[in-house]
Amino acid sequence: MLETAQIRKIVRIDPDKCDGCGLCVPSCAEGAIRIVDGKARLAADNLCDGLGNCLGTCPRGAITIEERPAEEFSEQAVEAHKQKTAPKPPLPCGCPGTLARLLKARGPAQACAQPGSDRAEAVSAAGGRPSRLGNFPVQLALVPPSGPTWQGADVLLAADCVAFALPDFYDRLLIGRTLAVACPKLDDVGPYVEKLANIFANNDIRSLTVARMEVPCCGGLVRAAQAALERCGRDIPLRVVTVHLDGTTEETDGRQAPAERTIHRDTTERNGR
Prior knowledge:
Elements: E1 5-13, H1 24-27, E2 33-36, E3 39-42, E4 63-71, H2 75-85, E5 101-102, H3 109-112, H4 118-125, E6 135-136, E7 153-159, H5 162-165, H6 169-174, E8 178-182, H7 189-202, E9 205-213, H8 219-232, E10 238-243, E11 249-253, E12 264-265
Parallel strand pairs: 7-8, 7-9, 9-10
Antiparallel strand pairs: 1-4, 2-3, 5-6, 10-11, 11-12
Helix pairs in contact: 7-8
């Protein structure tokens, strides 16, 4: 046992209850909590002050305060940890994979591909179906926080697996929307809350649709969006589309309390907007 260990209050995270949503990460000012292998974990004992600011942010009650032998809290260790984990600045030369681009093809093939054009040839080569992607990049970690991508935009925030499970993803959800994708199970969701709040607060966003899978951990994407909307202080309509493994869906109003939400099943509503 380390010489600095003492019996003190410190955060305990129950791995059986934690679904890796990451909402506890930004609430820890010391940066003591990180998402590792899809679970929230204490990075080091000496980073946790034991005050429990993260308790109220866990929707599953996985975080508690316990008393046990732990290394003494160190502000010096916190500062060193923050410097080590601070986001790295972008490369000065830029990267084609992070260059923000607006794409033209958002509507039907006949509306976006004139005969003889390069896009018409590309559409023909793709079997007559144009791409529905309207922006690039699409990874939430890479999309720019401002710019024409977001102006007057209907935003689609989709979990990584959604497009593989929903047969009509492109025509039903993607067309006409600015896309950002993320995985609430594997990604560190904490920075996403801050980034989304920045996007919502500083751009002309008309609406937000969150598309998630039915598995519980995917609810972290919805909670991140809700937390970001609360922080930005704007009344942006939020719709949640839950995709089941058999390809069926349910839709709810994400800004209503759970008891007030109206569910629309895809057997009665198949509109893309």
